[in-house]
Amino acid sequence: MNDTKQSLHERLQDLKERSGLSLRAIAREMGYSQASSIQRYFSADYPETGLPAPFISKLLNALPGKGTPAITREEILTLADGSVAEIQKKSPSLPETGVPIVGEVAAGLWMEAALFETENAEESTISYDVRFPAQSQFVVRVRGESLNKIAANGDLLLCVDYLAAGIEPKENDLVLVERSRDNGMTIERTAKRVIKLNGQSELMPESTDPRFQDTIIFREGDFDHTEVKLKARIVMVFKPL
Known about the structure:
Helix content is 20%, strand content 29%. By secondary structure, it is α+β, with helices and mostly antiparallel strands. The protein has a six-stranded mixed β-barrel with strand order 1-3-4-9-5-6. The longest helix has 12 residues, at 8-19.
């Protein structure tokens, strides 16, 4: 059916079914613990003709890249109310090409820093996230099982560089972490979840693999001269077929 003839409810339901996710799973991807937090938006009785900006922002973290064919950011944005549509009109244009794949993330491997980066960036089919500047975005490929609760070996992570985007890390962010030693000559690159415990930031594993269960205390440096850096926020996971 043509999108212009479908109701908001029908279009949202179509995307839900295409994603293969339950309402509870979508809610969890959006950062909620219960399906009831988003149920009213999926109801046929929802009275509005568009979805509010906060809901759209969270939905953009949950559905794009899911399903066959993969759900696109543009499809989500067509569900937005007028205020979000206006924001999109005022946003700077983003490149039409996909976000480049610039390297890998592979916990447990200490390597020369340059070896984590590809000599020539690959072009992906992943669209830029309209919430962040294009120059702050890049893609890395997961290598190994260090993030298998979230992403499997070979999956792609859309990342936003904190410094380039002008944003600060916050609690519950999934982050790309670099630990350096030997005066920065070698690094380990991994991904962790930011949590707050006893007034300090801790980086928790998102893996079931017993090799990657260490928790990292985030601070500028420690006594064995190992430096921890939060390089980027991971905003989306893509699973290539």
